[in-house]
Amino acid sequence: MSLDGHIALITGAGQGIGRACAVTFASKGANLVLFDKNPETLSKVAHEVGEMGRKVMSDVLDLTNLERLQEVARKARKIGLIDILVNNAGFDRPGTTAKIEKKGFEEVLSIHVTVPLTLIQMFLPGMRAAGWGRIINVSSVYGITGGKGEVAYSTAKAGIIGLTKSVAKECGQDGVTVNAVLPGLTRTPTIETSMAERYKKTIIANTPLGRMAEPEEVANVIAFLASDEASFITGIALPVSGGWAV
Ligand SMILES: NC(=O)c1ccc[n+]([C@@H]2O[C@H](COP(=O)([O-])OP(=O)(O)OC[C@H]3O[C@@H](n4cnc5c(N)ncnc54)[C@H](O)[C@@H]3O)[C@@H](O)[C@H]2O)c1
Fold it and tell me: Which string of DSSP letters, residue by residue, matches 119-147?
């Protein structure tokens, strides 16, 4: 499975699943454009994939600043045809319907739905013109199950599935596939530091494979969907959850 000759844009590439995607894609020959808001982690990852012999452009930005996002995306377009887009960056603002504040709700919708839409609008025309492209959106099992106390996150993760399926229908004739992956519990820095142990134990108890995923296990599936081998797969929402919620 090779990604040689392709340029992949990965959001949230500084750590976790995004970092694993950067390293996995680099190992398969892709050159990379990496976005993250954290300058320290992003420069480490950019250095790491540069050492692997890949060309890499990285930009530090808050993706939810849409004007800045468009400006940086326009700059990225100048380096060549970006024909793989991985919409991965995300964050959570937990809360029930009673407690969630509108500001937090909208921030979560912005990073998980509006930012991916904006990047799709910026890069899909180039992919369609080239007759080949891959868009992979990182959703969550919560996008299909909902999550107690996760009203914003679950709504946003369902939204990105709808966006995935709609864009897939628009551009299939042009050789562009659009898919979503739905990770289950994955061992990323945010999960390690922010999620209560008892909550993790409950999810693992309900996961047939009996453990959480390593970020690379999710990145491998994303790399497959980005490859020529996945040429007849589009519009799917694929759980990578160890059997949790399927
Ligand atoms: N880890 C899990 O268990 C899990 C489960 C299901 C879905 N997901 C989804 O997978 C994706 C990656 O998750 P993760 O656990 O690796 O996350 P993470 O928090 O470990 O890393 C997210 C990265 O995105 C960056 N980022 C966040 N907001 C940004 C912004 N506004 N602008 C620029 N960069 C920003 C962060 O700086 C960070 O580097 C997310 O969309 C998340 O919702 C994760």
Answer: HHHHHHHHHHHHT-EEEEEE--THHHH--
Q: How far apart are CA 151 and CA 93, in angstroms?
A: 9
What lies within 8 Å, CB to CB, of 178 at 6+ separation is 120, 135, 136, 137, 164, 165, 167, 168, 171, 234, 235
Mutate-to-test residue for ligand 1 from 119, 185, 188, 206, highest number of ligand atoms within 8 A of CB: 188
88 CA → ligand 1 middle, Å: 6
Topology given in CATH for the domain delimited by 7-185+215-239: Rossmann fold (3.40.50)
pLDDT tens-digit series, residues 163-214? 999 999 999 999 999 999 999 999 999 999 999 999 999 999 999 999 999 9
| d(CA 16, ligand 1 centre) in Å | 7
DSSP, collapsed to helix, strand or coil, labels residue 51 as helix
Q: Which residue's alpha carbon is at the smallest distance from atom 25 of ligand 1?
A: 12
**Confidence at 243, pLDDT banded by 50, 70, 90:** very high
Q: What global pTM score does this model have?
A: 0.98
Q: Give the C-alpha separation, 226 to 158, whole Å.
A: 21
